[in-house]
Give the backbone structure.
Amino acid sequence: MQDLFCHIESLLKSHDFVIVPGFGGFVAETTSATEIDGTLYPPHKSIGFNPSLSYNDGLLAQQYVREYGFTFDEATDHIAGIVVRIKESLNQWRHLRFGNLGMFHLTESGVQFEPSLTNNLLSSSYGLVPIYFPIIKPSLSSPMSHNETLTIATETKGVRFTKRETQSTLGYKIVTAVAILLLLLVFPLSLYDGKNTTPQTLEQASLIPNIDTVEQQKASPVTVDLATLPGNDMTYHVIIGSFYSRNKALQYLDELPSGYKEECEIVNSEHRYRVSYKRFGTESECDSFLETFTTSNPRFSDAWILELKVNY
């Protein structure tokens, strides 16, 4: 089972979700730094699990095809065997650690997933560790009594303003300011993930619209909704990206080199927006192209084949 855990973690670094056929789907969403019980956790990808996502979209099977030289059917059978062992372990032990992603628990209401608070799936947070901030209590030996107050007075044009603050309130504000300063030093603000986003994205984050961005949106590719096309033919797509929203798919297209961008289309299927680089009418043509494409283009080494019943 360990090989399955490792492959899912690897795929979640560059995909929003990974489906284990017959078991469920893991969904990854980028989360900002969070504080829990005095511990500050760095930005990371929070992992969710949806048992209703159990269909075979081919992404995980294609990973086994690349790694071990299986055929697609052999990879599918291999994954199905692992799923059987996972369910047997849950029935026997009631608990199962799923690699670094989290823990599964078998309860009376069904299978429950408890995600891990830390993982290394977000490249921009690689090497960052949680930091514990202990609570600083006021010292009993302080020369100033806890009930004493400080009076801060200022005069402006003859008018006197007086603000009275307790020692504990002032100390709390000082600790808060120091914590914010440390937070900014440890986790500098960043508008993009160094692995998947180009500096061009920073320009798009500006409050003033970028003229080039507006023109690109006007010329954005038409999304192909396979459910609205008539017929019952099979097509095979070389998928280089898969997203929950069309905006994310368009952003991914915008970051591609111009030589690839013009060849892509967005395929809307199973409530997902997938970026298809090529489509073929036969599986053999698609397999042959994929092998050459991934070998000559390391950037798309995790490209995979999506088989769909569509119409022209």
Confidence is low (pLDDT under 50) at residues 144-166, 190-219, 226-232. The chain has nine helices and 16 strands. The first strand starts at residue 17 and ends at 20. Residues 113 and 297 are 37 Å apart (CA to CA).
